Amino acid sequence: MYTFSYISYLKFIHKIEFLFPLMLALNCLYGIVEQALLQKEKKKTRRQAGRYGWFTAEI
């Protein structure tokens, strides 16, 4: 049982390793798109896209 869980854990880690760059690229794209949309709208609340698209801070 223990070895089986270990193998499944390794497979899970491998999946994350495969998905991580993809998600990072998607985050960057999302950040760029969000910046463009916000510049278009020019709202009163200025938002600054962080290093990644998810972490947006309101100023």
Can you walk through the features of this model?
The chain crosses the membrane at residues 18-38. Keywords: Membrane, Transmembrane, Transmembrane helix. The chain is mostly helical. It has one domain. It has one helix at residues 2-41; strands spanning 47-49, 56-58. The protein has a two-stranded antiparallel ribbon. A hairpin with a 6-residue loop joins strand 1 and strand 2 (56-58). The model is unreliable at 54-59 (pLDDT under 50).
Task: Tell me briefly what this model is.
The chain crosses the membrane at residues 18-38. The protein has one helix at residues 2-41; strands at 47-49, 56-58.
Overall helicity? 55-70%
The N- and C-terminal alpha carbons lie at a distance of: 51 Å
**Low-confidence residue ranges:** 54-59
Spatial strand sequence of the major β-sheet:
1-2
Radius of gyration over all CA atoms, rounded: 18 Å
Beta-strand residue fraction:
5-15%
Number of distinct beta strands: 2
Count of spatially separate domains: 1
Mean pLDDT: 69
General form: rod-shaped
Secondary structure category: mainly alpha
Largest sheet: 2 strands, antiparallel
- Output the helix-strand order: HEE
- Tally of DSSP helical segments: 1
Keywords: Membrane, Transmembrane, Transmembrane helix
Transmembrane segments: 18-38
Based on the model shown, name its key terms.
transmembrane helix, 10% strand, mainly alpha, disordered C terminus, 59 residues, rod-shaped, membrane, transmembrane, 68% helix
